[in-house]
Amino acid sequence: MFKDKLDKIKEEAKKELFDRLSSNGNYLIEGDTIKLIGDFYKNQTRISLKNYGIINPESIEEYIALGGYRGLYKALFEMTRQEVIEEVKKSNLRGRGGAGFPTGRKWEGAFKVEDYPKYVVCNADEGDPGAFMDRSLLEGDPHCVIEGMLIAAYAIGSNKGYVYVRAEYPKAVSMLRKAIESAKKYNMLGENIMGTDFSFDLEIRLGAGAFVCGESTALIQSIEGNRGLSQQKVYRTTEKGLFNKPTVLNNVETFSNIGQIIDKGADWYLSYGTEDSSGTKVFCLVGKVENSGLVEVPMGTTLREIIYDIGGGASGGKKVKAVQTGGPSGGCIPENLFDTKVDFASLKEIGSIMGSGGMVVMDEDDCMVDIAKFFMEFTVDESCGKCTPCRIGNKRVYEILQKITMGKGTEEDLEKLKDLSELITKTSLCGLGQTATTPVVSSMHYFYDEYKSHTDGHC
Ligand code: SF4
User: 428 CB under 6 A from ligand 1?
Assistant: First the structure.
């Protein structure tokens, strides 16, 4: 029985792991769980990052010791494909890559299409400035991503998957490779997994670092061996995705939750977060903040709790001025709105997004026009150039911002910024262009006086 094999590995590895960590003052061992100790961790709730910084990522045994592959075992031996999908639907897990689409509904879509082969793809093409959630998860706990992909594959009836990861993440790639090899060795990957009739093969595809390849249609083009350009979306990816076949495409963090949702049940997952946004979310807290790093909190935690209680406020005794959430497509939120809850709906209401989880803190010394210019420069560099509004429009926006920060801007330029931003949002082909001017629009909305100071010649 495979269960006996799993239990044996678990008991042996657990003893070694607990012995090793019990003498280390950085860990708190409570029953079967191990937690990191310290002010930075005490207000966090770690589900995705449960093993991060605790297990040796090269050891599948240590992953199993802390409950790893139990979700896969349960799915394969105790649940039908439909039951797995229903459990994920019930958990209300929404995609952590940015769009927040319900994961279970996505899987159900791919499950229902009678067209084979089907594919499971993991988007690890993290490219937001200041974001390193996916990289850290792959470096620190690659098996939780593999387990999530395996459960997705079983649920939709797929035998082939790809992890699309950027080549600039060599350690993540190396950890993933080792994890795939050890999963094969233990019969978690390959033919007749755990002695069942379910087989799954997993390949790594390296991205060359183009930000646009994080967008689903461009990512699919790139895996297929074409230039990574966004495409007009005619069909859902779940109907005609990779190689024109039904495909489930989720990001690293989304997959990292799946094993525990299946193992512990949807009700357990629903006990975290809000009605609209269940579970937890991993953020990269960076910028002018005292304690920076990976933060995982229940959805619905306020920005203030994250930035002050966990982040310790601005570094160097300065005042926090704003936070930019959601990467280059996100908005700049002023300090007086820090009681906003962090969930999909609340961030949208104040003109920002959750995105994949970037959170860049700015202090009183930061000029918000400069910040908007920084993000626009990034977008102009990363535009694939396929459509005119994004290729030309964003460049014009960047040039106007340059002019304003050089003290040569006028009132008319401020109007042009607003009009151009609206036009680019409405007419760009893909999400990159459609959201590119969000930092400009939000900073103009909340910090208009700073733009005016530049155009009035006060700075
Ligand atoms: Fe390319 Fe930008 Fe158009 Fe997207 S919006 S297709 S990134 S040019």
Answer: yes
